[in-house]
Write a structure and sequence with these properties.
This is LacI family DNA-binding transcriptional regulator. GO terms for molecular function: DNA binding. Pfam families: LacI, Peripla_BP_3. InterPro entries: HTH_LacI (IPR000843), LacI/GalR-like_sensor (IPR046335), Lambda_DNA-bd_dom_sf (IPR010982), Peripla_BP_I (IPR028082). There is one protein chain. The chain is an alpha/beta fold. It folds into three domains: 81 residues, lambda repressor-like DNA-binding domains (434 Repressor (Amino-terminal Domain)), CATH 1.10.260; 122 residues, 3-Layer(aba) Sandwich (Rossmann fold); 129 residues, Rossmann fold, CATH 3.40.50.2300. The chain contains twelve helices and eleven strands. The protein has a six-stranded mixed sheet, with helices on both faces. It is elongated, with a radius of gyration of 26 Å.
Length: 366
C-alpha cells in the first residue's frame, strides 16, 4: 500500500554489470537519496526502474555500449529514462569522451525528395544512438574538409557524391559513404550501397515483359557512381533492344528537362516506352506527352526512378523504382555509431530496391 512501486521482474545481469562490481539498486530503495531536495531524476533512478546497474545506464547514454550491452537492455534503459524524464548530462559526457555527438550529413540537394527520405532515416537512427545529425548541401571536398575540422564533427556521412566531391579527409575522421562506389571503403571508411543497378534492371525487364522492344531513355550526365551504375545496368539489359537515348546535361532544371523530353517525343517514330533516371524527368515526359496529345499509358509507357511521394498522385500513377532512402540513412548512422564506439563494423549488404507498378505502363498495343 502507500506509495510503493510495483515490483518488476529482474532481468538477467549482463557482463558489464558483473565487471562493474555492483548490481542494480535494490527494489526497496527510493528513487532519490533520502532527504534530498533534488527533484530531477538521476541515472540511479533509471537503473532501478530498468533493473540494471548504474554502470549499464552510463554505458548506454555514453554511446560506447557497443556489444557489451544487448539491444534489449539498451531499449529498456531508454524506455525507463523516457518514463522518468531523465536527461543525461550531455556536456559532461562529451568532455569525458572527447566527442561532440554531432555528425555531418552532406547531401547534394537539400530540396530533393529522395534526400529528405535519407535525412528522415538518419534522424531516427541518430536518436537511438545518441547522436545529432547536421545537414550540409551544395558542397565540395575542400568545403567538407574545412567544415569537419572547424566545427568539430565526430564523423561525416557523404551521400551520392560526384567524382569531384570525393577528396582526402583526415584519417582519424570516420566517413560513411552512402549510395557510393564500394571501392571507397577502407580503414575508418564504410560504404553503404544502394542497389540502383538492380532497380534499373527491373525497370527494363518490366518494359520488355510488356512487349516493348524500342525504348527511350532519359539519362543524366552526372560523373558519379550512382549514375554510372544505372547506365551500366541499362546498357546490359537493353543490348538487344532498339534504344533512343537523350542525355540530360547538368544542370538542366525543369524547363531543360521538359525540352529534352519534348524533343524525344516530337519524332514521328518516337519510342512507345520511356525509362527515366528519376521521377522528375518522368514528370517532364508527362508534360511533353500532353503537348503532343499522347495518352499515358495508351500511347506511351513511362517508368521513373525514386518513388517520390508525388509519384502516386501523377495522373495516371507513375510506375517507378523505389529507392529506400530511409533505410540508407538508418544504416549509415548505425555504421557511424559502430565506428565511433570503436567497433569494427562491416559494410552492410546493398540496400535493395523494388519496382512499384502503377498505371503509367501497360502492354504494347499494335
Amino acid at each position: 500500500m502507500g506509495n510503493r512501486e510495483p515490483k518488476m521482474a529482474a532481468p538477467a545481469v549482463h557482463d558489464v554489470d558483473a565487471l562493474a562490481g555492483a548490481g542494480p539498486p535494490r527494489a526497496g530503495e527510493p528513487l532519490t537519496d533520502p532527504g534530498s531536495t533534488r527533484s530531477r531524476p538521476t541515472g540511479r533512478d533509471v537503473a532501478r526502474l530498468a533493473g540494471v546497474s548504474q554502470a549499464t545506464v552510463s554505458l548506454v547514454f555514453s554511446g560506447i555500449a557497443g556489444h557489451r550491452v544487448s539491444e534489449n537492455t539498451r531499449n529498456r534503459v531508454r524506455e525507463a529514462a523516457k518514463r522518468l524524464g531523465y536527461q543525461p548530462q550531455a556536456a559532461a559526457r562529451q568532455l569525458r569522451l572527447g566527442r561532440t555527438g554531432m555528425v555531418l550529413l552532406a547531401i547534394p540537394d537539400i530540396k530533393g525528395p529522395f534526400f529528405a527520405r535519407i535525412l528522415a532515416g538518419a534522424h531516427e537512427a541518430a536518436e537511438e544512438h545518441g547522436l545529432t545529425v547536421v545537414v550540409g548541401s551544395q558542397w565540395d571536398s575542400d568545403k567538407l574538409a574545412s567544415m569537419t575540422t572547424v566545427n568539430q564533427f565526430d564523423g561525416l556521412l557523404i551521400c551520392s557524391p560526384t567524382d569531384r566531391q570525393i577528396g582526402e579527409f583526415p584519417a582519424f575522421m570516420p566517413v560513411i559513404f552512402l549510395d557510393s562506389d564500394p571501392a571507397l571503403g577502407g580503414r575508418n571508411r564504410i560504404v553503404v550501397e544502394l542497389d540502383v543497378a538492380g532497380g534499373m534492371r527491373s525497370a527494363v525487364r518490366h518494359m520488355v515483359g510488356l512487349g516493348h522492344r524500342r525504348i527511350g531513355h532519359l539519362r543524366y550526365d552526372r560523373p558519379s557512381h550512382t549514375y554510372r551504375a544505372r547506365q551500366a545496368a541499362f546498357e546490359e539489359e537493353s543490348r538487344h533492344l532498339d534504344v533512343v537515348e537523350r542525355l540530360i546535361p547538368e544542370p538542366a532544371g525543369f524547363e531543360g528537362l521538359r525540352k529534352i523530353a519534348w524533343e524525344m517525343l516530337a519524332a514521328d517514330d518516337h519510342p512507345r516506352a520511356v525509362i527515366c533516371d528519376d521521377d522528375l524527368a518522368a514528370a517532364c515526359v508527362y508534360h511533353a506527352a500532353a503537348e503532343f496529345g499522347l495518352r499515358i499509358p495508351d500511347d506511351i509507357s513511362v517508368v521513373g526512378i525514386d518513388n517520390i511521394d508525388a509519384s502516386a498522385f501523377f495522373v495516371p500513377g507513375l510506375t517507378t523504382v523505389d529507392l529506400s532512402g530511409e533505410e540508407l540513412g538508418r544504416l549509415g548512422i548505425t555504421a557511424m555509431a559502430g565506428l565511433l564506439n570503436g567497433d569494427d563494423p562491416q559494410a552492410p549488404a546493398p540496400v535493395r530496391t523494388r519496382l512499384v507498378v502503377r498505371q503509367s505502363t501497360e502492354a504494347l498495343r499494335m
